[in-house]
Amino acid sequence: MILASSSPYRKELLARLRIPFETISPDIDESPRQGEVPEALARRLSLAKAQAVAAAAPDDLVIGSDQVATLNGQDPIGKPGTIQNARRQLAAASGKTMHFFTAFTLLSPHHAPIEHCVPIEVRFRDLEAGEIARYLALEQPLDCAGSARCEGLGIALLESIRTDDPTALIGLPMMLVADALRRVGLPPI
């Protein structure tokens, strides 16, 4: 089994199932297409990542995944990359709801592709500039869309999370992944 991702968060999540796998970073263009809505972008990139890796490993199970965040239905919110961008993302999210879409695709040489996309609503508390600065100094979530790691100190910035699968917000909806693996004959338990 191969995880088509360079994300340490997805790798950590998939390792929970205790099924041996390797990771290969897919080399794809992740730019949104003109007029592409966030959910469609997440689904397309999830499939593209899986297909890119499966092309070189056609006999393996391949899992691709992608997450897209948006605030107020605006353009996708990417990974901040810098403290300044993270500060801007968190200030913009203060008191608002950010929507995430986490898609995954399982490609198998002997089964039809399995694809899912999990919507997540994340409500941020009203945030003060000082607490944003302290949070960013302590956690530096520069590789996380939305700039808050719910599995870390970022949970203190949030008012609520609404989703059917809490691992989807971290980057891979593990309940659906486990079900997909069962469907292709690789049950985790």
Describe the structure.
The protein is globular. The protein has a single domain, classed as Maf protein. Strands 1, 2, 3, 4, 5, 6 and 7 form a 7-stranded mixed β-sheet that branches. The protein starts with a strand and ends in a 6-residue tail after the last helix. The protein has 6 helices and 7 strands, in the order βαβαββαββαβαα. By secondary structure, the protein is of the alpha/beta class. α3 packs across α4.
Write the layout of secondary structure elements.
Layout: E1 2-4, H1 8-15, E2 22-23, H2 38-54, E3 62-71, E4 76-77, H3 83-93, E5 97-108, E6 111-124, H4 129-139, E7 158-162, H5 167-170, H6 174-183
Parallel strand pairs: 1-2, 1-3
Antiparallel strand pairs: 3-4, 3-5, 5-6, 6-7
Shape summary: globular
Order of helices and strands: EHEHEEHEEHEHH
Can you name the CATH architecture?
Alpha-Beta Complex
Q: For the report, how would you describe the main beta sheet? A: 7 strands, mixed
Please provide the count of β strands: 7
- Under CATH, the topology can be stated as Maf protein
- Overall pLDDT score: 95
User: N-to-C terminal Cα separation, in Å?
Assistant: 16 Å
List keywords for this structure.
single chain; 189 residues; alpha/beta; Maf protein; seven-stranded mixed sheet; 7 strands; 32% helix; 25% strand
Put the structure in a nutshell.
With 189 residues, this protein is of the alpha/beta class. It has six helices and seven strands; from the N terminus they run βαβαββαββαβαα.
